[in-house]
Amino acid sequence: MPVELVPVLASGMLEGVYAATEEAVRTATGPIGLVLIGIYSFLIAFVLPLPSEIVLAPAESMRLGLPLSATTGLIVLVSGLGKAAGSVFAFHIGQEAKQSGPIIRFVRRSRFDIVEWSEKTAVQLAQEYGYIGLALALSVPGFPDTISIYAFSVLEKDYVRFAAATFAGSVGRLLVTIVGFASVTALL
């Protein structure tokens, strides 16, 4: 196999994994579906570049024997807890990474200075709004969580406040999505 095809195949395989993961969450049902939503939310906090809003898709077909509002609330709670747990894991990785000079030096020398950009953005939000800034950043639908989570994880030290901010931001994002969808639907 030509070496040039390896990145293309790897990229295609990742896209397939991402698509399959999203589809599994979209079609989740029952208690196992809630577990899947929790795991998905955990993973998107630190590794999967996928939208967190997708967890709301199976609400109407979840088959939990609850009213739609209770099912949606349960999905939001499970997703928020999953993302908070994943964020604490990312927080731990960030704490370890800032102790590792060679990793930071390698990333700083890379073509794209991700660390500098992330630190600059995170420092601005942290200085201006603290943990509320993290929660607000995570409340924006469609904005990738991973960058904000890792940027804050390198700067901050309080696991509990970090988890609380990521939980609040995750729940906030899903509530903004629900309200926005309801508003658009009402206009139609």
From TrEMBL:
Coiled coil, from the record: none
Residue intervals passing through the bilayer: 29-50, 62-82, 129-152, 164-187
Domain VTT: 72-179
UniProt source species: Halapricum desulfuricans
Protein keywords: Membrane, Transmembrane, Transmembrane helix
Annotated InterPro entries: VTT_dom (IPR032816)
Pfam families: VTT_dom
Name of the molecule in the record: Membrane protein DegA family
Domain of life: Archaea
